[in-house]
Design brief:
Helix content: 10-25%
CATH class: Alpha Beta
Mean pLDDT: 82
Number of strands: 9
Length: about 140
């Protein structure tokens, strides 16, 4: 249902947690998150996919859906990160009090190789992406 609508590809890591957004009884969004392997950051997850069906795009559903998924992880005691090349999502996070930029935010990544596929996620060093950590509402409202 969502595979044709993501700007990268339709592959999703099988180890991901999957989320479905429903609005007025209609399935409108899909999200996925995976653990973030790191030698320095413990107990962290990262956004893996956020897709909103075309009929529901442009209404702010994607950014709010991403916030909800991030808040779920924060409520469980995890840190949550996300990287996106999507202009509207990136600019939303730049202005949001729920997200803080990471040290990689809006920087060309020289630590990833061009056309590298990692955990079924395409990464390259040809585009500048937004990179944020969700700090959200610590009380989980």
């Amino acid at each position: 249902m969502f595979s044709d609508h993501h700007y990268l590809d339709s592959k999703v890591n099988k180890a991901a947690r999957f989320y479905v957004g429903i609005w007025n009884g209609d399935v409108v969004a899909f999200g996925a998150a995976i653990t973030m392997p790191s030698g320095t950051i413990k107990n962290a997850w990262r956004g893996h996919r956020t897709v909103v069906l075309p009929d529901f795009q442009g209404m702010g559903i994607g950014v709010r859906f991403s916030d909800i998924i991030a808040q779920i992880h924060l409520n469980e005691g995890h840190r949550y990160f996300s990287r996106t090349a999507h202009l509207r999502m990136g600019e939303y996070r730049e202005k949001s009090l729920l997200w803080k930029p990471t040290s990689k935010n809006k920087k060309l990544r020289t630590d990833v190789k061009h056309n590298k596929v990692y955990n079924n996620h395409f990464e390259d060093n040809k585009r500048v992406c937004y990179s944020h950590e969700y700090i959200g509402n610590k009380k989980g409202s």
